[in-house]
Amino acid sequence: MIKNSDVMALPALCVGDVARVVKIRSGDNGRLLKLSSLGLVPGSLIRLQQRWPAYVIWVGETQLSLEEAVAQDILLQKM
Question: CB atoms < 10 A from the CB of 70, how many?
């Protein structure tokens, strides 16, 4: 079971941290569809590679670059 205290937004991670996606909170269905087509879905593992000038994460073998607003909507549980 996941406790709310264990859940954080992607910007709270440090470079190199690995976390599991808990939820993507967005009212934009187009954004949700695009992220899911790239493998960023609840249950997937991500690793933060870079924080600036954009958040760069690895999802499996896919590298994604995310702007701050998108990163804030990705809720994670650190591994």
Answer: 20
